[in-house]
Amino acid sequence: MKKKQTLKYIALDLLAALLSWTALFAFRKLALDTPAAPELTTFRLQLFSDPNYWLGLALVPAGWLALYTILGTYRNVLRKARLKELLDTLMATLIGSVVIFFLLLLDDDITTYSDHYAAFLFLLAVHFTLTYLFRLMITSQTVRRVHTRRIGFPTLLIGSGSKAYHTYLDIENQETYSGNIIIGYIDVESERSAEPGNPLSTLMPCLGGIDNLRPLIEEHHIEEVIIALEDTEKELIGGILRQLNSAADLIIKLTPDARDLIVGSVKQQSIFHSPFIVINNRLMPEWQYSIKRIGDVVIALIAMIVLSPVYLITAIIVRATSPGPVFYAQERIGLHGRPFRMHKFRSMYVDAEQAGPALSKDDDPRITPFGRFMRKVRLDEIPQFYNVLRGTMSIVGPRPERQFYIDQIVKRAPEYLLLQRIKPGITSWGQVKYGYASSVDEMVERLRYDLLYLDNMSITTDLKIMVYTAKIIVQGRGK
What we know:
This protein has helices spanning 2-33, 40-48, 51-70, 82-105, 114-147, 162-172, 190-193, 213-219, 237-244, 258-263, 286-306, 308-321, 369-376, 384-390, 403-412, 429-433, 440-455, 459-475; strands at 153-158, 180-187, 206-209, 224-227, 251-254, 277-279, 327-333, 339-345, 394-396, 425-427. It is an alpha/beta fold. The protein folds into 3 domains: 2-147, no CATH class; 153-279, Rossmann fold (3-Layer(aba) Sandwich), CATH 3.40.50.20; 286-475, no CATH class. The model is unreliable at 261-266 (pLDDT under 50).
């Protein structure tokens, strides 16, 4: 359903871009190029015989689609609101029109500068009108289908007491249906769930306890979670949020206390729907996520090309200085807790972990002499640009760990799971400020730097970390 809806938006956005470019070209021919309007036959010849028209018809719509993708237009297409759609379309049209003006219209032969203004305003008005009208049709149709319960979003209710029960009734009886299809509830107190008088058990199945939230979310393809705990259970919210925040694109809602509504600290998404505190699981604006991914791919490609002689020389030295393979691949845990294979130049002797997983230390005998040098200048990390291209890692992000150590860290610092909200990286604020960790204690200590990055994640912060990383490499201060 989501893919079909996305294709609708893309197709109509493409059509709007084609029509608006044709209208702009016609406007320039009819109103700006000649003092008197040409005959229809002459105009058609002027329009369709102009190679610039066909070149623009091929490139301009593709540029619009790229802009919409960067701005996150095609994300969550089933949850669009018409007013927000209006504002987002206006902003995107303004940005795109300015780019087209400076790239394609500014060098037009004109009689007066007012011709430039006329062409810009014409493009802005026509493109916005066509694009928003097409989108309004799709969005309105989707909203109607949600309100009439023809489509909905699989939702999990966390709570098994009276508040959870009344929250369910509130959702089911709301004047305008919000689309939540509650498939079951999570029991936070098994004793209560077993009580014969528990009303929730007669309305939906109990799917389990709070210890297995993430497997349940993946198994049932949950899109929203509503936390409705009793006042005596509020201390559980922190642990629940730590588990939920690492899940992929999950919308998390909490039932507000009465005092929240009185002081006005809760903002409702719609005056017709039940009031919830909505926790945003996205750490940056959508356009910054797009720029970060584009930057990752560009930097990784450039690095792999420029460093290709370094790859070759390093591979030869690794092979010559110690027996065994050149590269070393190890399973690490990445975005949303998914395992992946991380690649490095081998810096240890073969079978260095025969006795089980062990972290490296400053004078670790398992590290080869050349491996010690590689670690100082981070040379062993450069094969990870391949992971960046594949999308399992980013240039900047918390260092990925093995599940063996994650289990130990989480026992002492459950907030570690918050790091799984983002892709792991080749370098990080923790790596810059702390370096390699040689024990679980040091991993926990380094965690505070990575959590600080999580709170301040942005393109600017990534650039600063990359600059500091380059400085460490040049100075050979890697730990």
